[in-house]
Design goal:
- There is one protein chain.
- The protein is α+β, with helices and mostly antiparallel strands.
- It folds into 3 domains: 166 residues, FAD/NAD(P)-binding domain (3-Layer(bba) Sandwich), CATH 3.50.50.60; 170 residues, D-Amino Acid Oxidase, Chain A, domain 2; 122 residues, Orthogonal Bundle (Helicase, Ruva Protein, domain 3).
- It contains 16 helices and 18 strands.
- Strands 3, 4, 5, 6, 11, 12, 13, 14, 15 and 16 form a 10-stranded mixed beta sheet that branches.
- A hairpin with a 6-residue loop joins strand 12 and strand 13.
- The longest helix has 20 residues.
- The radius of gyration is 23 Å and the shape is globular.
Length: 547
C-alpha cells in the first residue's frame, strides 16, 4: 500500500472518490475496487485516526440493541461478525462474554435467556458458541471476585475482540491490493463542479504543502463525525445531521482488577449497560464505555476526570474492595460515535446505531452513522448507490454487484498450516519466538512480508528496545502501511499507546530513528516526533476537568 501523491492523483479521473480513511471509508473503497471501479481515497489525518481506533474493539452483534428492538441492526451485525471470522481470522478473536443479572435489572433471567436465544439465531446458531445460562453459584465459580450482592446469575455467550485500527488498515490495504489509490494527510478543502454537479475535490497535501484537484464521477463522504463539516463545504447552510457521542474507556491491570471474562452489567449511577473486558494480551482489562453528548473539538478528544471517575465507579462496583482510583489507570482513550441525529429528543445511549445514506442536491453521497462491525455492509450499500448514479448519469452499465463478502482482508489468507509456516520462518531467520508470535497474531499472513524484510536485510531483526518490536515492523509500517509520523506507528500500527503505562515511550526514540532513515528525518525532526508522541501519551493519561 503506497501513498499516492497529489500530482499522481490529479493526473487522472476516477469513478469513485472516497473522503475519509476510517473503517467505513476503507470498506467503501474496498467494495468499489473489488467491483472493478477506479477508486481514490483521501484522509486529512492518518487512517483510523478518529473513531476507528478508539472504539470498544469488538466485532459484535450488539446484544444490547435488542432492548431497543433494533432487530435488523443486530441480525446484520451478527452476520458480519461470523463473516469476519472467515475474512479476517487474524483480527477476529471469539471470546466468552457473561451478561450479568442483578436485583432490579430490567432483563430478568427469563428475558435474558430469550434475548440470547435470538442472538444465537441471528448468528446462524454456531453450535460450539451457543449461549447457556449460569446460576449465581456457577457464575461466581467462573468469576470469584465479582460483586455477589443481589446477583441472580447471568448468560454466557460469545462475541469477538479485535484491534480496530488494524482492522481499518487491513481493509484499506485490501482495497489498494484491488487497485484503489489512497493517501493519508490529504485534506479536502472544497469541491470541483461541472454543470452544477460535484465532479471532484480540491485537496491540500499536509506533508508537502501541494494543492490541487482530484476529479471523480462520484464523490462519497465517509467521514463519520466529520460528515457535517464535509457537507458544509458544499452548502454552508446545510442542516446538521450528526450527533457525536463521546465514548471513553479506561485500562486497568488484571492484578488490580482480577477479571477472567468480559462481563456486561449496568452502571450503578445511571443503569447504562457497560462492560469490563480482558484485553487480547490477557494482562489488562479495559472498562467502557461512557455515552454522552459531545460539543468540543472533533480533532482532539480525550478522557476527562468525570469520564474516568464514572468508569472507576463501575469497576469498583463490579469487583468491590479494590478501591481503584485514577492512580490505578494504565491509560484511557476517548472516541466519538458518529450517531445520526434522531427526530425525537432521546438520550445518546438510545439513539439508533443504524446508518443512513444521503444524496445532496449537487450529488454528494454521504454515508453516516453505523458501527465498526457493519462497516462492510455500509460500504456495500453506499457503493450500490454510487453504481446506480454512474449508470443513470454516465451510462456506466454492467457494473457487477458486491463481492466484498468473498475476499479476505489483507493478512487474512491463513492457510491450514499457517502456524507451522510461521515456526519454520522463525527458525530460519533466528527470530525471537515472542516477536514472531506478536507479528503473526497482529499481521496474519502479512507476517511473511515482514519476515521478507529481514530476509533481505538481517539488521531488520534488530530489537527496538522492548515490547517485541523489531526494525522490520517499523520499516513495513513506513513502506507498506503509510505510517508518516511516530504517532502513526505507536498508536495505530503497533497499538503500543494504550496497552502500556508509558505508551511504549521507552522505545520511541529508537523507533523515530528507524522511521527517520526512510522518511528523511534529521535529528531535530526525530526529536520533534518523539515530543509530539509524548504529548499524545500524556493527553490520554492527564484527565483534565471538563470537555
Amino acid at each position: 500500500m503506497k501513498r499516492s501523491s497529489l500530482t499522481e492523483l490529479a493526473n487522472q479521473s476516477v469513478d469513485v472518490l472516497v473522503i475519509g480513511g476510517g473503517v467505513t471509508g476503507a470498506a467503501t473503497a474496498r467494495d468499489a475496487a473489488l467491483r472493478g471501479l477506479s477508486v481514490c481515497l483521501v484522509e486529512k489525518g492518518d487512517f483510523a485516526g478518529g473513531t476507528s481506533s478508539r472504539s470498544t474493539k469488538l466485532i459484535h452483534g450488539g446484544l444490547r440493541y435488542l432492548e431497543q428492538f433494533e432487530f435488523k441492526l443486530v441480525r446484520e451485525a451478527c452476520h458480519e461478525r461470523e463473516l469476519m471470522l472467515r475474512l479476517a481470522p487474524h483480527l477476529s478473536h471469539p471470546r466468552p462474554f457473561i451478561y450479568l443479572n442483578y436485583d432490579g435489572y430490567p432483563e430478568g433471567m427469563f428475558k435474558l435467556n430469550v434475548g440470547l436465544s435470538i442472538y444465537d439465531w441471528f448468528s446462524g446458531n454456531p453450535r460450539k458458541r451457543r449461549h447457556h445460562m449460569l446460576s449465581a453459584v456457577e457464575l461466581l465459580r467462573e468469576e470469584p471476585h465479582l460483586n455477589p450482592k443481589g446477583l441472580h446469575g447471568g448468560g454466557w455467550y460469545y462475541d469477538s475482540l479485535t484491534d480496530d485500527a488494524r482492522l481499518t488498515i487491513d481493509t484499506l490495504k485490501a482495497a489498494c491490493d484491488a487497485g484503489a489509490k489512497a493517501a493519508n494527510y490529504m485534506e479536502v478543502t472544497g469541491f470541483v463542479y461541472r454543470d452544477g454537479r460535484i465532479a471532484g475535490v480540491k485537496a491540500a497535501d499536509g506533508l508537502t504543502g501541494e494543492q490541487g484537484e482530484i476529479r471523480a464521477l462520484q464523490v462519497i463522504n465517509a467521514t463519520g463525525v466529520w460528515s457535517d463539516e464535509v457537507r458544509l463545504l458544499e452548502n454552508p447552510a446545510a442542516d446538521m445531521r450528526m450527533r457525536p457521542a463521546k465514548g471513553v474507556h479506561i485500562v486497568l491491570s488484571k492484578e488490580d482488577f482480577p477479571l477472567n471474562h468480559a462481563v456486561f452489567l449496568r452502571a450503578p449511577r445511571d443503569r447504562r449497560v457497560v462492560w469490563p473486558i480482558p484485553s487480547l494480551d490477557g494482562d489488562l482489562v479495559y472498562v467502557g464505555t461512557t455515552d454522552t453528548d459531545y460539543r468540543g473539538p472533533l480533532d482532539h478528544v480525550v478522557a476527562t476526570r468525570d469520564d474516568v471517575d464514572y468508569l472507576l465507579e463501575v469497576a469498583n462496583h463490579t469487583i468491590p474492595g479494590r478501591n481503584l482510583t485514577r492512580e490505578h489507570v494504565v491509560a484511557a482513550w476517548a472516541g466519538l460515535r458518529p450517531l445520526v441525529k434522531p427526530d425525537a429528543n432521546v438520550s445518546t445511549s438510545k439513539t439508533s446505531r443504524e446508518h443512513q445514506i444521503l444524496l445532496s442536491k449537487a450529488g454528494l453521497l454521504t454515508i453516516a452513522g453505523g458501527k465498526l462491525t457493519t462497516s462492510r455492509v455500509m460500504g456495500l450499500q453506499v457503493v450500490d448507490a454510487a453504481v446506480r448514479i454512474l449508470g443513470e448519469l454516465f451510462g456506466r452499465k454492467g457494473i457487477p454487484g458486491s463481492v466484498s463478502h468473498q475476499w479476505p482482508l489483507s493478512g487474512g489468507e491463513l492457510q491450514p498450516d499457517f502456524q507451522k509456516q510461521v515456526g519454520e520462518t522463525t527458525g530460519r531467520l533466528h527470530l525471537s519466538p515472542t516477536v514472531a508470535k506478536r507479528l503473526s497474531e497482529r499481521y496474519g499472513s502479512n507476517f511473511f512480508a515482514i519476515a521478507g524484510v529481514i530476509s533481505q536485510d538481517s539488521s531488520a531483526a534488530q530489537a527496538m528496545g522492548g515490547h517485541d518490536v523489531v526494525a522490520a515492523e517499523v520499516r513495513y509500517a513506513v513502506q507498506e502501511e503509510m505510517a508518516r509520523t511516530l504517532t502513526d506507528f505507536m498508536d495505530r500500527r503497533s497499538a503500543l499507546l494504550y496497552w502500556n503505562k508509558d505508551g511504549g515511550a521507552d522505545i520511541a526514540t529508537n523507533v523515530a530513528a528507524e522511521m527517520g532513515r526512510f522518511l528523511g528525518w534529521d535529528p531535530a525532526e526525530q526529536q520533534r516526533q518523539v515530543s509530539a508522541y509524548h504529548d499524545w501519551v500524556v493527553a490520554n493519561r492527564a484527565f483534565p476537568t471538563g470537555d
